[in-house]
Structures are given as C-alpha cells and as structure tokens.
Design a protein that fits this description.
This is Glycosyltransferase. The protein has about 375 residues and is of the alpha/beta class. It is built from 15 helices and 13 strands. It folds into two domains: about 5-170 and about 355-385, Rossmann fold (3-Layer(aba) Sandwich), CATH 3.40.50; about 190-350, 3-Layer(aba) Sandwich (Rossmann fold), CATH 3.40.50.
Length: about 375
C-alpha cells in the first residue's frame, strides 16, 4: 500500500490551514487506495475539516520556527530537536511521499536532507531578515522538491537554479455564483476584512483609514473585521480599544474567527487586504474574487499578482491609511465607476486560481516523487495560472 504523510504546522482554519486541507483533499482524490497520515502539532478546528477525507490524524510535537518562540527554541528547544528530527526521519523512512506544508517545520526539513527524494516542500511564507537566511538554508539542506505559491515567494527565497521547484498558485474551491446585489449607493457600502489579528495583516491600517474618512462618507460605510489573534488576547483587546478611540463603534463590528467565512464574503461589497508586511500570495483576496467581490490589496509580496488594479480591484501602498481611505471614499461616491470590477474579479479567479491546471501541476510534482522519476521543469506555472 502506498503511504503518504502530510505535515502541517497549524491546527486552525485560516488561509494556510485551508490550503493544506485542499491539498490533502487533492491527494486523496488522486490516490483513493493510499494510506494518508496527517501530522499536526495539536488538535484544533482543522481536524474536523480533515476527518471527511479518510485520513489518519496524528498529533506529535513538531519543531516549528515561530518568531514569538525564538527565545525558547534557542534554549530548551534545542535539547529536543534531535528527538524531533529522529521522529521525522522515521516517518519519512516508512512513507513513499512526505508533503510538508510551509518551510517552518524544521525537524522535517532537517530529516529530509538525510533521506532525499521522498519530500515535497510547499512554501507559503515570505520571511525577512535572519529568519529568511535560516529558512533558505534549511530549504537548500532539505533537498526536497519545492513548490512556491507565488513568484514573489520564489524571488524571496532565490533558490539556486536547476533544482526541482515550481511556482504553483494555491487553488481556491469555487463557492458558486455571487449572491448579493451589486452596490448602487442606495445603502451603506459593506467592507469586509477577514484574517488573523496580527501585526502583518493591517487591521490598524483599516481602522486609521476609516477614521480619516469625511463624516458624510464614513456614515455610508459598514465594516466587518473578522478574525482572532493567535493565542494573543491582548492584541484583540488593543484592536477593539482602537476602534472605540477612533469613534468607529457604530461603523465597525468585530467578529471572531469562523471556519466558514462564506457568509461574510456574500455579505460584503468590497474586501480589504491592507497587509503591512509581505503576504506570500493572499488567499482572502482570491476568495473574495471567487465570490465576485473586488479586493483592495497592498502593493506588497504576492498580492499584486492577484489583482489587476483598476479592473478587478485596487492596489494601494502598504501601510498607507490615507491611500486606503481615498479608495474607499471613491468607491462610496462613485459606485458606477467600479461596478464592472465584480464580474472581472470573478473571471480572473476562474482563469487563474480555480482551474484544473493547478491541480494537475501539483499532482505532477507529487507524482514525480512517488515515481522517483525526473522532477518537472523548474518554473512551470500552468498557462492558466499566469497572471
């Protein structure tokens, strides 16, 4: 029996978690008779999503490189790294294919380098500074076949030419036709921000932008900020306090994380992704376009690869609350000027992020490892996935 191991560093159902579930679902559909073992660091909402895929979920300690854990990892964490690598090596040894989702799972990258030829590494991160140097070195050591989720991610890691690597955009499942009527100015503009509450995502930029809106424009906007912090309640409290301090309590609703964001996308007219730091791609923006909702994204990381400015959405400078406010004010004042964006956004999703070509490309990479054959060409984004 073919044994496939899929390793993930998370346990919730945010973007990277849903991307992992999508890949496991693809693997199961391509290999219905295989045994698929999923390794997670702890149980969480993702387990329910995986349970329908006929996989065995195992919770094991993983050596995950996270910024907030660096002091601990550099001290007591080093003592348990050898055991973690040995455990990962044992799994790799008894697997025909190991799929590792994200490059921060250090123990599996180190073990992969000891047993090359069995691992596919899917990189979804754009790290910076010392973290980038460390992760780039780990990726090279792993000698894994590498999938990068955007050209921006590929540029960041700048891996040596000639290795088995491909840029393949994340596939986003089709939610079906858009449900809400197009915005015509007869009601408040519905603006959605969806994602983890963190320093990266830019919830504070959105709050500042709303504060800057003229009073008559602000009165014609309704905002939902949906998401929770990662084990950081203080950050959530700070966000709530900033909304009150800006006098936006009647305009902005804070809602907790949900494993099914579809109702929020259906509610929205526009989706904002005002990231301060590079997003490797930007799943929320793609999901918005799948729902026929044009996104406003920051001009950073992989986000500009998703949106055609002035056609399927808007691109604004990162961290620029004034630019974001100006875009929102224009959307409120001139709904007819961007009405075609909704259809264009949906068509771009269908052409670039929703096609079978993406599935085919991923299965080709995984199949090359299973077959122990020649790896696919280095920069083979499927034609349907080109921006």
């Amino acid at each position: 029996m073919t044994v496939i191991t899929c390793v993930h560093q998370g346990f919730e159902l945010y973007g990277s978690d849903r991307a992992f579930v999508d890949t496991v679902r693809l693997v199961r559909s391509a290999h219905p008779g295989a045994r698929i073992d999923v390794v997670l660091p702890r149980r969480g909402p993702i387990v329910a999503a995986l349970s329908a895929l006929d996989v065995d979920v195992t919770v094991e300690p993983l050596w995950i490189l996270r910024r907030r854990d660096l002091p601990k990892l550099a001290t007591v964490g080093m003592a348990r790294l050898p055991a973690a690598v040995a455990r990962a090596a044992a799994r790799i040894r008894r697997s025909d294919l190991v799929y590792v989702n994200t490059c921060v799972v250090v123990d599996y990258l180190l073990a992969s380098g000891l047993m090359p030829g069995r691992t596919v590494l899917h990189i979804h991160e754009i790290p910076e500074g010392p973290a980038l140097a460390a992760l780039r070195a780990l990726v090279r050591w792993s000698r894994a076949s590498v999938v990068l989720n955007s050209r921006a991610t590929a540029r960041t890691f700048a891996l040596p030419a000639g290795g088995p690597r491909r840029v393949i955009y994340n596939r986003i499942s089709d939610p079906g036709p858009a449900a809400a009527a197009p915005y015509d100015g007869s009601r408040p503009l519905r603006v959605l921000m969806l994602g983890r509450v963190s320093r990266i995502k830019g919830q504070d930029v959105l709050v500042d932008a709303l504060r800057r809106l003229p009073g008559d424009i602000r009165a014609r906007v309704e905002v939902r900020i949906v998401g929770s912090a990662f084990e950081d309640e203080a950050r959530e409290r700070a966000l709530a306090a900033s909304i009150v301090a800006a006098g936006l309590s009647d305009r902005v609703v804070l809602l907790p994380f949900t494993s099914d964001p579809a109702p929020h996308f259906r509610w929205a007219d526009i989706v904002t992704v005002p990231s301060r730091l590079p997003e490797s791609l930007g799943r929320v923006a793609i999901e918005a376009m799948a729902h026929g909702k044009p996104p406003i994204v920051s001009d950073i990381g992989g986000l500009p690869e998703i949106v055609e400015h002035g056609r399927s959405g808007w691109i604004v400078p990162p961290g620029d609350a004034a630019a974001l406010a100006g875009t929102l004010a224009s959307a409120v004042a001139d709904p007819g000027g961007w009405r075609p964006y909704a259809e264009a956004a949906r068509k771009r999703y269908e052409a670039v992020f929703g096609g079978a070509a993406i599935d085919h490309a991923m299965l080709e990479v995984l199949g090359a490892v299973l077959d122990r054959g020649a790896a696919p060409s280095a920069d083979a984004v499927p034609s349907a996935a080109h921006p």
